[in-house]
């Protein structure tokens, strides 16, 4: 039987701080909420912003509210602070059971994050979705703002704002800015924008680029993208084997530091092991 809005959404087993795949789900299509919740997505994002026609905003918002009141769980992408919809979004969502947090669209200042967080009574962490040149330049202040949980990159709107091409070189600067800002703000790695289309080779290539730049999550537009994103943003089997070998040798040697490369390698090995455990990838 196909899940529907009245079926309980599962709590995700992977921490949102480590989550790789963030599945956007059209808030105006409540019949898709259940299948999304049952999918391999690390997190689901019920979208009442760009996915929804302005004439359907109220209906979509109410469908999302009903999802949570019926026992569903997940995150919500809300409209940006400059719109007339933002206050209604926040007022409708505050205090709902099962809501893990909100993604604030088109964030351009630390105040946008903090005001949203405070309006949510400090109960819902905020992912700042950065989609403009101004947002990229203000990324460090947003990363350090009260209430910010992670940064995310709205790559499509960023390209429209700046006229930047979609190629990897042109998009390296804004992605790197978000990676650096996240580190300065002591946040988890940022969430990259989605790949448009269904080409798996393209999705894998773009996911590998995101990983190389230091991003640790990706927005996904459909369920078919999840497996590739989860695989690409997880440690490889060879990484896991190297980490286990290094840590075993390090322990066998009494954890003695032998040269200047040991501490960086130790940190890398421990991080790989932590992620492998979180993603259920450790070999028996």
TrEMBL record:
Keywords: Lyase, Magnesium, Metal-binding. Substrate binds at residues 77, 131. Residues 20-222 form the HpcH/HpaI aldolase/citrate lyase domain. Transmembrane segments: none annotated. InterPro entries: Aldolase/citrate-lyase_domain (IPR005000), Citrate_lyase_beta/mcl1/mcl2 (IPR011206), Pyrv/PenolPyrv_kinase-like_dom (IPR015813), Pyrv_kinase-like_dom_sf (IPR040442). Mg(2+) binds at residues 131, 157. The keyword Mitochondrion does not apply. This is CoA ester lyase. It comes from Lacisediminihabitans profunda.
